[in-house]
Amino acid sequence: MKKLWGGRFSGSTEKTVEDFTESVSFDSRLWKYDIEGSIAHVTMLGRQRIISKKDAALIIRGLKEIRLEIESGKFKFSQALEDVHMNIESALIRKIGQVGGKVHTARSRNDQVALDIRLYLRDEISDVIQLIKQLRKVFVTLAEKNIDTVMPGYTHLQRAQPVLLSHHLLAYYEMLGRDLERFGDCLMRVNVLPLGSAALAGTTLPIDRHYVAKLLKFPAVSENSIDTVSDRDFVAEFIAAASILMVHLSRLSEEFILWNSEEFKFIELPDAFTTGSSIMPQKKNPDVLELTRGKTGRVYGNLVSILTIMKALPLAYNRDMQEDKEPLFDTVDTVTSCLSVLIKMLPLVRFNRKVMEKATAAGFLTATDLAEYLVRKGVAFRDAHSITGRVVKYCIDNNKTLNDMDLKELNEFSGLIREDIFHYMSVEMSVNGKKSHGGTSREKVLPRIKKVKSGK
Predict the structure, then answer these.
(1) Rounded distance, CA 212 to CA 46, Å?
(2) What distance in Å separates the CA atoms of residue 423 and residue 379, rounded to the nearest whole number?
(3) Are residues 162 and 277 in the same domain?
(4) Known catalytic residue at 277
(5) Are 195 and 212 in contact (CB under 8 A)?
């Protein structure tokens, strides 16, 4: 098949080279944006009288017909035509004749593909942002429903202090809030028009890039043509933001996998989001969570891939940059699928309140409250810490909990301890006493839920 760029070549391209260099097998998903960009570009060419308005109208009509053919499934992409851009342009020329060749006036595939990716990513970021907002609402709803449930808070995967389950769930709300900010920041840098930079130097033709930006709703136009066609920072930034989001989804998955185990029994996952074993009939496996955790590594790999592709490229465009799309597309697909499935699954998780509260009552989770009680009596914190540590050791040696201790025993360690200590060392007081800003007390968590529900 004759190439649109083949004028300088005397022979045909080797079939193995066509197979090796083609990208239409994956970049065909950009077709909508390629046509959208071409229509805006041709509208500008006609307005600037670079091509006649009659030719511009004919080209735009042809592009719209091709759009309908692709939407209906009638359009056949050809690997021999390399990429989505050449497939659409070739179809246009077949449809309306040589005037179709004017569509590529004053542009290169270099700025054309940069435009397509930015248009595509702009839409995808908007979708990801909406999914994150939905998932945050799920956490707020779960937090409100479980406001009276107490659980052990952990450090080093060791029971540490009592916390409200609501407070723990809202930690993910905060993480996702930072993700929203990152994707919002990324969107600002994606939302810059590259078209008109041509191959790398701009064009001698009197184009109006700002008019094209207006048509395509870009708030900014790129300032340096060399940088524009060689820039994939916005792709790397999107995958980096996605990687951090996946950190949060993976940590959530790991916690819920642990909580769902027989060793914890803190939660029960819904049957519809679990699978069975091929050999062990009793098994109920948390595959959705495990796959989310596993797919996190996949997104990390995509980030390393794009950074490695770009790390040593001289300016401006190089064909290596064709390899940007598969990591990008895979990241988009992975992130959206993980968010979507968690949005559906989490509202159906059943929290075992009694098991959580029993786990909270065991051990020495209120030991810090004893130390802070002594601080209020005027004891230096390091001394209070040491006294409490000796109390805990005594309990361990004598197979007791802090609540099993009587006042006489406690006074062996400090004469400052009074009867009111048992009030301060209760789980309820431990939780509700944490009234510092951002703390786990009901007094702080309830207003936070109310505030985020109101959108303030």
Answers:
(1) 12
(2) 19
(3) yes
(4) yes
(5) yes
In a shared domain, residues 46 and 74: yes
The last residue of one of the domains, among 51, 73, 105, is 105
Report how far residue 400's alpha carbon sits from residue 201's, in angstroms, rounded to the nearest whole number.
79
What per-residue confidence (pLDDT) applies to 5? 44
Catalytic member of 156, 436, 437, 454: 156
| Options 12, 25, 52, 277, the catalytic residue | 277
436 catalytic residue (yes or no): no
Place of tokens 């995967």: 157
Could you tell me the two tokens for 39?
């229509």
Q: What is the CA radius of gyration of the chain?
A: 31
Q: What is the pTM of this model?
A: 0.93
Same domain, 101 and 186: no
Domain end marker among 105, 129, 158 = 105
What CATH number has the domain bearing residue 62?
A: 1.10.275.10
Q: What is the mean pLDDT of residues 36-43?
A: 98
Q: Smallest Cα–Cα separation from 94: which of 71, 118, 65?
A: 65
Give the pLDDT confidence of 381-405 residue by residue, as tens digits: 999 999 999 999 999 999 999 989 9
Find the domain containing 231 and state its range: 110-355
